[in-house]
């Protein structure tokens, strides 16, 4: 840290004296080496770093974590913030406090990857050499994907537009639900890959339940209700897994929610939302009195524009081993990876142990033998007090933890799953998962 400060001060002084920035010719950029460099202090980065440390095979500073963030957020909880059930503050912790002191923490951004020569540069131009690299920086929200969205989110009271998808905005969602007494409420989901594909409708189901209890929405008489509810999604169905999609479609119809499928939000102007349609069909514009938006998401530019990315911009790893397809000492898990599953913290519970086992075997000169089956989960709030616990693997095939134990059908919303979602998962997450002790359905590691 001290060294990097000196280096950047020297660079700044030089840049000033020459009158231009010298990013390409740093004066004395420091160079350090680590056995493992982990990009990202999010769910995947923390779980994997601590699982590696717990293997007992690494000493002080063998493993480094790179992340510019000051805070770590329990993002699965933001739906609960949107539903007025938790505060955003109680879901976050300072990132440095979650990192074991045996790990070297670079609280910096990433500049570039040079996998051919086994190093990365940091945003401050310092160089980190590695034996193994783990890339887990997550995905970026693209607020620019919807015209007028950034401006609308900055003035939530006037615009009636909000989103649970960021720390800055999630606290505005519940007040907007409470404030609405009549009119059109529209909940959107974009076409394309997002994290937690169920969240765009979870917040809708909570809002519906809230308005129902407030006497403003009657599911048996939606046309005669003060509030009308529509789910506008760029996707063709309620959910990507047929088993759960069927149940959610049944709920949508039962509850009188209008389904606007293959409607991809592209613009907000005043109280009008415009949706693109496929196959050159004309755009559709709808008036709203409340709009809950989910922006498009995608890989960070520093990943997308690197030699590590596949065509879509994700870190190009093997679906089973999590090892990079071209660079044998590069690995990825979590949202930034190309693993073709739904992007959730639950997925990381299954990905992390596979990555760790395979990386350790590779260090020993053996071939990877652990295989990730695509396990992921979506605890889908369908009302206050009930959750449909979708759990599935590659191919959208259900893989239900509790079905196996108790013979129950997890497509049926239950109060027990609600307690898991609201109380147990946030607790076990900070208590064990980020420390490398939690294997999801496998329990404590
Ligand atoms: C899980 O382990 C986890 O992380 C703590 C979640 O929180 C985000 C989950 O949503 C799920 C489903 C799991 C999986 C664990 C079990 C016991 C099914």
Automatic annotation (TrEMBL):
Residues 35-149 form the FAD/NAD(P)-binding domain. It comes from the Eukaryota. InterPro entries: FAD/NAD-bd_sf, FAD/NAD-binding_dom, Sulphide_quinone_reductase. PANTHER family: SULFIDE:QUINONE OXIDOREDUCTASE, SULFIDE:QUINONE OXIDOREDUCTASE, MITOCHONDRIAL. This is FAD/NAD(P)-binding domain-containing protein.
